[in-house]
Write a structure and sequence with these properties.
Elements lengths: L1 H8 L1 H23 L3 H17 L1 H7 L3 H23 L4 H16 L13 H33 L5 E2 L6 E2 H27 L4
Helix pairs in contact: 1-8, 2-6, 2-7, 3-4, 4-5, 5-7, 5-8, 6-7, 7-8
C-alpha cells in the first residue's frame, strides 16, 4: 500500500519523465532507421568508446558477465539514479538527462552494421526488454526527483535536515518506498542485459 501511495503521489513527475523517454527513444530509433549519418556516427563512436573504457563492457567482452552486470547495476543506481533523484530539486536535470538517455537508447537500436536490432525476434526481445527494465527504473528515480523538488517548492512539510537545507519528510519517505521498486528493476535490467538469454 505504501508503494502504491508513493506512486500515486509522484505520478506527475513520473508521467513527465515517461513522456520524455517515449518521445526521445522514438526520435533516436527513427533517426538511425532512416539512415541519419550524424546519429549513426554517434552510435558507432559511443559503442566503440564503451568497449575501450567502460568497465562493464570490458568485463563483458572478456566473458565475465556477472562482473559486468554488477558494475552496470552499481553504476546505474549509485552514480546515476540516486544523484538524479536528488537533482530533481533543480527540476531541469532529470528531464535533460532523460532526454539524452532516451535518445541514446534509440540510436543503439541498430547494430554495428547499422541493421535494425528489431528485425529478428531474438534481438528485438533482448533490446526491448533491456530498454524497458532500465528505463522503467530511471523513470521512477527521475520522477521521484521531480516529485521531491515540487514538494520542496510547495513546502509540503514537516521538514527534516539541517536548518540551511530542510527537505519535506513525507516526500522523502515516498521516495524511499519508490526505491523499493527501483533497486530490483535495475538489478533485473543489468542481469538481463549481461546474463540474459541473448548474451
Amino acid at each position: 500500500m505504501r508503494i502504491l501511495l508513493a506512486l500515486r503521489r509522484a505520478r506527475g513527475g513520473i508521467a513527465i519523465i515517461a513522456a520524455t523517454y517515449i518521445i526521445t527513444v522514438a526520435v533516436g530509433i527513427a533517426m538511425v532507421h532512416m539512415g541519419n549519418q550524424r546519429a549513426l556516427s554517434f552510435r558507432d563512436s559511443l559503442v566503440a568508446k564503451a568497449h575501450r573504457v567502460d568497465a562493464a563492457s570490458i568485463a563483458d567482452d572478456r566473458g565475465d558477465h556477472a562482473t559486468a552486470a554488477a558494475i552496470d547495476f552499481s553504476r546505474n543506481l549509485g552514480l546515476a539514479a540516486i544523484p538524479e533523484t536528488v537533482g530533481g530539486l533543480a527540476f531541469v536535470l532529470p528531464v535533460a538527462l532523460a532526454a539524452y538517455r532516451g535518445w541514446v537508447g534509440g540510436v543503439v537500436s541498430v547494430d554495428r552494421s547499422h541493421r535494425s536490432r528489431l528485425r529478428k525476434p531474438r534481438t528485438a526481445v533482448y533490446y526491448v526488454v533491456t530498454m524497458l527494465l532500465q528505463l522503467m527504473a530511471y523513470t521512477l528515480a527521475d520522477g521521484a526527483g521531480l516529485y521531491l523538488g515540487w514538494s520542496y517548492i510547495k513546502k509540503r512539510g514537516p521538514f527534516v535536515g539541517p536548518r540551511w537545507f530542510r527537505l519535506p519528510e513525507p516526500a522523502l519517505k515516498d521516495v524511499a518506498w519508490l526505491y523499493v521498486l527501483i533497486v530490483p528493476l535495475f538489478a533485473l535490467g543489468s542481469w538481463w542485459e549481461f546474463l540474459g538469454p541473448a548474451t
